[in-house]
């Protein structure tokens, strides 16, 4: 059902039945290492290219979600996923492996919530009994494509962010088992492209902050809710600079969010002493933090209702070379933990 | 409603209210030039790069669809679109221009029907009053990225296809005006990734043919329909070689389709004497042929019910360099012209 112009509310509150979360060596030393299903000790993952390792991360996350959920892949109707690599080949090759009818998505680092919003809409209306959705990134594959091969040892300014290595996948269904307690998808707000004219690809958090704010305000405007209705509002990967900018912009717009309640996936995934500059990023970032860490915390009773606002910078190396500014987007999904009311 | 494993049937039969179709100089000399709303006489379209011209094609198609449909863009809830360029920047920049909440899609040349299927699902269930969906490609931008800049004058084998320059957009709504006669979206079949091991990026029609066949067979299997239920079955851009391969495969599988009824967008867009090798291709190909030419023919009474099977080769230059085979996909959408029954 359409609640506001850009927000869907889901009367049937589809559930996240199970998740699969994979990560790399940097994530293994991170703050939420315990929330991954599998952590690889090197970036190659027994593949002969970083792009194939990237594909493997997604294949494994899908496999794990199905295994943990005890669902045959033949029962899954659709796979909605994407990544940052040109023509999203790691995801498309993973779709070849799992053989599930496939919607390729591109929303840069907002892909995770683009996919979860569509999956919730589809399952809410009986369009599928089971859907898999997710996003992934691989540090060395992404760096090689967007900047330089990591082997060059190029330096970056402190505003830059560290692309995470990992994949997060959710198995979404119209219902959980009877009497079961699950994370339910309550609503989703689809973002517009916002571009404030920033051109520095080494400060994407700053560029993306206005998009996050636009979507957060649209969510509250469309639903009539306020920040008090959520225990946690988590942006995708604004990092240190983007989070501060977003806080300032929200304040300017008269939207008061308690600082303790306003977190960022890019600031949650790594330890403070890891050399990740302004924080983590990458299409996998919000996917692994939500489907790993945050859902675990919800299950442990720490949060009842959250809003995940995944942010994406829709640039390319070529668009930067052609001196374009950075178009950004954010999609928000509200998740409630409990029995279906 | 879910009819079969990978097919949706739309009880409310959403309508294609209006379309916007733009094209380039090669298309202006083509077979269906009269079906474009605007044809540009050169590839630059008053922009300073081919990528910006590519963006402009999509912006203009959106503008035209809204103008012709007499719908303010503020009334349109979602824009679902994509293209072939890295990180689909032409589409994302067009989404910045129109400011409509945006789902970025990547399905290579199958993107048009990926978007139409999702738009139909969304409008069928009241998820939006108006949705815009489409796909585009630009010959020089795509050639530069996937192969060589066209200025090099590189030669190609006769199995290769010619990327079309154009954008096709549809304005989709739950209903048309009362008593109005419109193209209605009846069902959609989402394809799996099919890869028969072909590795030649200069014969993508051959690589994509098995994916088209897989989706066509799934469509008939899921819906219980047969080729006799359609006046026309049109593949996206298999070209000469792919179309023949698809015909052979369908015959092998016991699916008899009259040759006259089985067309291909890549073989409809250009004249026989244009030097396009095995035919047209590109994400814009099925979009402009359907939203321009075929819908016009339906309105003229030539066809009542058609099945458009858009095919996509999900490769990248890097995946080819790494000696991967070509994963392919096809999505099918059934369209019926008439009053809502």
From TrEMBL, chains A, B:
It comes from Peribacillus butanolivorans. NCBIfam families: PRK08304.1, PRK12404.1, spore_V_AD. It holds the Pfam family SpoVAD. Coiled coil: none annotated. The lineage of its organism: Bacteria, Bacillati, Bacillota, Bacilli, Bacillales. InterPro entries: SpoVAD (IPR010894), SpoVAD_sf (IPR038369), Thiolase-like (IPR016039). This is Stage V sporulation protein AD. It comes from the Bacteria. Signal peptide: none annotated. One of its GO terms (molecular function) is acyltransferase activity.
